[in-house]
Amino acid sequence: ASSQESLMSLSSDEGQGGSDLDNINVVVRVRPLASHEVGKKDIQAVQFPGEGQIMVDDQINGHSRVYTFNVVFEPEASQEDVFEFSGLKRLVDMALDGFACTVLAYGQTGAGKTYTLTGPQGEGAGISHEPGVINLAFSYLYEGIKQRKSEDFVIHASYLEIYNEHVLDLLNPSPKHLPVRWSKDKGFYAENLFAVECEDEGDLQGVLEEGKKNRQVRSHNMNEHSSRSHTLLVLTLTAETRDLDDPHTFIRRQGKLSLVDLAGSEKTKKTNSKGETLVEANNINKSLLVLGNCISALADPRKRSGHIPYRDSCLTKLLAESLGGGGMALMIACVSPSRTNAPETISTLRYASRAKRIKTKPIVRMD
Ligand code: ADP
């Protein structure tokens, strides 16, 4: 076996990128035990019995259950491994081809969502050090553009946060909530959201850093703000090519890549859930529940053409275009390996198991 195979396991029947019908990939990333967990002699409750499999020791129900996903990344897997083998490259390629694609990082607070997406946080955590899959995707995106010589691309980035069902612009320090509106052309959108044109990778990194900075300032003095909010970094990729049959006509194609760091999925402890906190907890749990309902309805061919409950939360409204038939989605379910967290790990794996197949169609606009 190669060294890659020892770090992760691929499910043999579903493969890395999936077939045309396999439009949601669900991968699991298990973070290493943290030093404080090792110090407390917390032990690892997860094992990797086979390809694409993860087994969790369920102490509450007194048995171990095996869950199967497209890929399971073991604690030793690097950021590059996750980028390379999660199917994320294919999502970037598809977004360049005019599809709307979504990456969702799901899991309890502390399971590694932010680390996986944007690398380690805090003092000394420079972007060159263990860059996250979003940073790696930025480089890959501009490489892809360079190779597509016959098309002109314009990239815009917007970055927002949903906190307690309110939308805040992370690229605008104003504390004003943005209303979510609907129009025939645009679908659901956050009104007055900044969209910054990014000419190169450096511009995109700048947008990411600016947004993170504004989020930090905002979350100052607000207990657990960052674990209770969802962040959406949305890249709009507009390509123009001359129509080969009629050189005066341009064909415009717009793809989208939504990179979503979801709020912590943990159940809030009842003792902490009073007043304002209770409202927040309900809204967070509700939006994750609605997201799960939308994804499983989209994944089920019998329900796909019926009612998808996007309208039930801000998060799903803003992701409606990306999830509903545009392109491909990748859920990265992040889990802790420790026994203490096993009940939350099981609940994350159950949630992730509900996500299956979504059908695609490209967005093509003619001018
Ligand atoms: P979340 O965003 O899910 O709340 P974080 O990404 O903040 O969790 O991760 C919690 C802590 O664990 C951070 O200190 C982070 O640097 C560390 N961590 C998470 N995943 C990994 C990993 N794969 N390798 C090393 N450290 C990790």
UniProtKB/TrEMBL annotation:
Region feature Disordered, mapped onto this chain: 1-17
Subcellular location: Cytoplasm, Cytoskeleton
Binding-site residues for ATP, renumbered to this chain: 107-114
Domain (Kinesin motor): residue spans on this chain: 23-358
Biased composition (Low complexity): 1-12
Record keywords, A-Z: ATP-binding, Coiled coil, Cytoplasm, Cytoskeleton, Microtubule, Motor protein, Nucleotide-binding
Family in the record: Belongs to the TRAFAC class myosin-kinesin ATPase superfamily. Kinesin family.
Name recorded for this polypeptide: Kinesin-like protein
Organism: Limulus polyphemus
Gene encoding the protein: LOC106464637
Residues of the full protein shown: 9 to 375 of 546
